[in-house]
């Protein structure tokens, strides 16, 4: 549980003029700023341990809160009755917005793919990254399946064998749906469809796919069973979500507008609003995160198709939950949630860029190795791509179906590509169920065979 801040008496600052407070006036006034000494925007629950000993806690908080309120920007109304959520653009948020603008746009992604040249293995890498968000978002919601097993299922188009695997498939479909619907405005129907696509067939009695909750028996609990959030009443869900959709659909992309809000800030606010509203009986977190991505796609940040924030959220779920609670307990100050999401997004975008650079270096080194081994001229472009993907460890097993999808070719071309690698003694194959599965031979055997005259 998080300790909420004390109620601030409007007249509390008058204490600064009387003893014993005025004797420590310099120490008190040093707290009249929104950030702590290290530039962090911390909630009361954490700040109270960082103030100098001997100071009045309520007065300290009143000074911090006064400084923050002077910089607040209203963002959107939430709840019933409506309460305005507000925020401050912190240094962390500014840094994240800068990185996202430079490295996550459609133009930046096109530059990456152009710069990497004809090494089509990058398409394999991107398809591999698409799967990460679906898998990690499911795991964040409790799906008990390993990443390796989940990836194998998605790559081979294998049918799910459990409810956990059905959750992964549902999330994968939901993320694909979000991408396909990126040009549509937000609506009750779109929110409902997104939920239906994501949860249908998992446990329909538990999830009620696509249906908004009709009663107030849904609460959010922490790991110890304590109720930490009671959503707004079910009776006004439609009207409140319509209001949210209206705000999201308003164009605020012109930096010259007085009420300009960066798309990423709006996307994070949409993420929070869906979690706060909790319109479905279950699966709200998945829908909230999918809508974050949908809005980023809509605003031309295409690289987010390959950037998995849920991997990092999954690794620190307590911090994710506390950012929700800190916001709610402090009068819907969304800065806490925005800053937490910014810290995650900053890391995720930076890691995506690092993966790209590593992939580029590996591609160049692989081509040199192929030339030296004598294999380069023996392989077609598609065979070089599949070979490179296998040698890098990006994928361990290949089928004609997944090669067809990743290289955007016909099934016959994919099968011919794989069988050609077997004939060249680069790959081996074995029958698994009804399909042939291809995999890389031992590296020493490949090198030995490559040196033989052909």
Blueprint of the fold:
Blueprint lengths: L24 H5 L14 H4 L9 H13 L3 E6 L4 E5 L3 H13 L2 H10 L5 H20 L6 H9 L7 H18 L7 H12 L4 H4 L12 E2 L5 E3 L7 H13 L13 H15 L6 H15 L10 H7 L1 H13 L5 H39 L7 H12 L4 E2 L1 H8 L3 H13 L3 E6 L2 E6 L2 H9 L3
Antiparallel strand pairs: 1-2, 3-4, 5-7, 6-7
Helix pairs in contact: 4-16, 6-7, 6-8, 6-14, 8-9, 8-13, 9-13, 11-12, 12-13, 15-16, 17-19, 18-19
Assigned CATH architecture of the largest domain: Orthogonal Bundle
SSE sequence, one letter per element = HHHEEHHHHHHHEEHHHHHHHEHHEEH
Number of continuous helical runs = 20
Q: How many structural units, i.e. domains?
A: 3
Largest sheet: 3 strands, antiparallel
Mean pLDDT: 85
Instruction: Give the low-pLDDT segments.
Output: none
CATH fold category name of the largest domain: Fic-like fold
What integer value in Å does the Rg equal? 26 Å
Q: Total number of β-strand segments?
A: 7
The CATH homologous superfamily of the largest domain corresponds to Fido-like domain
Outline? elongated
Name of the level-1 CATH class of the largest domain: Mainly Alpha
What is the topology, as strand order, of the major beta sheet? 5-7-6
Strand portion, in percent?
A: 5-15%
Strand-pairing-aware structural class? mainly alpha
| Distance, first to last CA | 70 Å
Helix content: 55-70%
